[in-house]
């Protein structure tokens, strides 16, 4: 059998060309190291400071003035309604402190300030307390920044 060197070279060239023409092998790529900083706060501290704040005092003062006005005019239904509301608010505060009730009314006071609190403290997420955090998770206490907002607000 007669061998043609040109034929062998042509087959080798086609083989090499096919190797380079195929798409690159798919390789798993790791995501960039995205670090998230979590802001946590002390529920007890936030509840206590809120209910000692001027915002809360102004609310109770207004309700008390409405109650006194109603009592002076003999409007017992309004007096009873305001007394029930004040009792319910006291109960809510106790439940919030014990962790048995939502802090929605308190969160609403600083609702517009959440982005500023996050920026000021350098966090990406604000939560009360994480259930789990990995060993490389960065955590920052944002309680002072939240508490400061209550002092800045005048109701």
Supply database-style keywords:
7 helices; Protein Binding, DinI Protein, Chain A; 155 residues; mainly alpha; three-stranded parallel beta sheet
- Provide the CATH topology: Protein Binding, DinI Protein, Chain A
Q: What is the helix tally?
A: 7
Unreliable parts? none
Radius of gyration: 33 Å
> Which second-level CATH architecture applies?
2-Layer Sandwich
The domain tally reads 1
Q: Give the rounded overall mean pLDDT.
A: 84
Give me the secondary-structure category. mainly alpha
Oligomer: single chain
Order of secondary-structure elements: HEHHHHHEEH
Strand fraction equals 5-15%
Could you give a short account of the major beta sheet?
3 strands, parallel
Distance between the termini: 102 Å
Specify the overall morphology. elongated
Per DSSP E runs of 2 or more residues, the count of β-strands stands at 3
Assigned CATH class = Alpha Beta
Largest beta sheet: what is the strand line-up?
Answer: 2-1-3
Description:
This protein is mainly alpha-helical and 155 residues long. It has a single domain, classed as Protein Binding, DinI Protein, Chain A (2-Layer Sandwich), CATH 3.30.910. Helices cover 60% and strands 7% of the residues. It contains 7 helices and 3 strands. Strands 2-1-3 form a 3-stranded parallel beta sheet, with helices on one face.
């Amino acid at each position: 059998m007669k061998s043609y060197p040109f034929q062998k070279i042509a087959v080798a060239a086609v083989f090499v060309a096919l190797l380079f023409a195929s798409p690159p092998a798919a390789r798993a790529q790791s995501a960039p190291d995205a670090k998230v900083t979590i802001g946590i706060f002390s529920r007890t501290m936030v509840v206590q400071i809120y209910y000692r704040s001027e915002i809360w005092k102004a609310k109770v003062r207004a309700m008390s003035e409405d109650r006194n006005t109603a009592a002076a005019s003999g409007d017992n239904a309004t007096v009873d309604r305001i007394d029930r509301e004040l009792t319910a608010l006291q109960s809510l505060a106790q439940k919030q402190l014990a962790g048995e009730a939502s802090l929605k009314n308190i969160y609403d006071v600083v609702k517009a300030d959440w982005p500023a609190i996050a920026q000021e403290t350098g966090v990406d997420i604000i939560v009360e307390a994480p259930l789990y955090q990995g060993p490389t998770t960065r955590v920052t206490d944002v309680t002072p920044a939240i508490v400061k907002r209550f002092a800045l607000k005048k109701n």
